[in-house]
Specification:
2 domains, single chain, 13% strand, alpha+beta
Length: 284
Amino acid sequence: MTFWEYIKQAFNGFGWSDVLELVIIASVVLFVFLYSARHNSLFYTYVLAAMGLIVFAVTFADLGSFNVILLLLLLILYTFGTILLFNAELKRDVFKRSWKSLLHTFSMSGEGYDLSEEEVDANIANIVKACQNMSKADVGALIVVVRESISDSVLESGTMINAVISSELLETIFFPKSPLHDGAVIVKGNKIIAAGCYLPLSQEQTLAKELGTRHRAALGITELNPTVTAIVVSEETGIITAVYDRQIKRYLDGQNLTKALQYAYNMELPSSRDTFWGVDGHAE
């Protein structure tokens, strides 16, 4: 019996339940394969390819009830493997869809956002001034602007400050001999909430080599919380970078940094934000 005759014979006894079973298994395999490939998890991609071949072989094998049991076991392995390996990415994708719909509705409402347009402009001006001064002095900085909320574990890793934003205070915090200069500053509304905070580092493998730990931390926090904007000042080059929803904008001057911060404070329409940051969430 040739291979094609075997395939034809295997399909002769197929019913709707068999077709449904194959469609479900194939869909799960394809989803996880594409998701892992998208996030550069090559090893897991190879494992899934091997397991897919096993599924294909088992489907056409006459193993009785064991066939169903093995297929269910593989399905469970796919599911748990995806959740464990891509926990951060899945969380980010889910949060991005839910948070964006809420933010379009509630805009600047909530604790810390009862600010006038003039007050927001003053906050932005202070952050821009501090970043430009630190850029000229080759002082590194990492500032996270929070629109709604951020993980308690991030805040607890630093020192609570709860002080009104000023360029002088930001520059003092990031002064090289300051005990808080290595961590991130968390800003919400018109307050510096905390300083010296540790952020999760992105595992993105395609990140440019010239981008250091601060940039990887900025990307990491936006992967987990797509509503925040992270501003990085490089101590090596003085280049100012903004990161939002896994997208990276480098070489920012005062005007573009102001625009990024306006989006961070949700002062612009979503369509304008898409024009500035681009669409689909891909880093430059």
